[in-house]
Amino acid sequence: DILTCLEGEEEKKVSLAGLVTGFRQHVTKKGEMMASLVLEDLTGGIEVLVFPRVYAQTCALNNDQVIVVVGKYIIRDEEKKIFAEKITALE
User: Model confidence at 8, in pLDDT bands (50, 70, 90)?
Assistant: First the structure.
C-alpha cells in the first residue's frame, strides 16, 4: 500500500498499485509529452511524475484507471513523489 511504501528512506525503488486521479499532460521545453498524476489507494495518495521517455512507452493514461507504477520514491522540498520508471494498466 502507498502509506507503507512512503515510510523509511527516500530514493528507494517502489512498486505501487492504485487508482489514477488528477491526471495532467504537459509539454516539456523540448516539446516532448510528459504527465503527472496522483496515484491513490485505500491508505492515501502520492504524486507520480511520468517523464517523456517513460510516457512514450506507456499505454494511454486516464483518470479512474487502475495501474501499477514501478519507480523511485523521492522527497523534494518536503513533497513526496514517485518518478515513474514503468507503468502497467490493470484490466
Answer: low
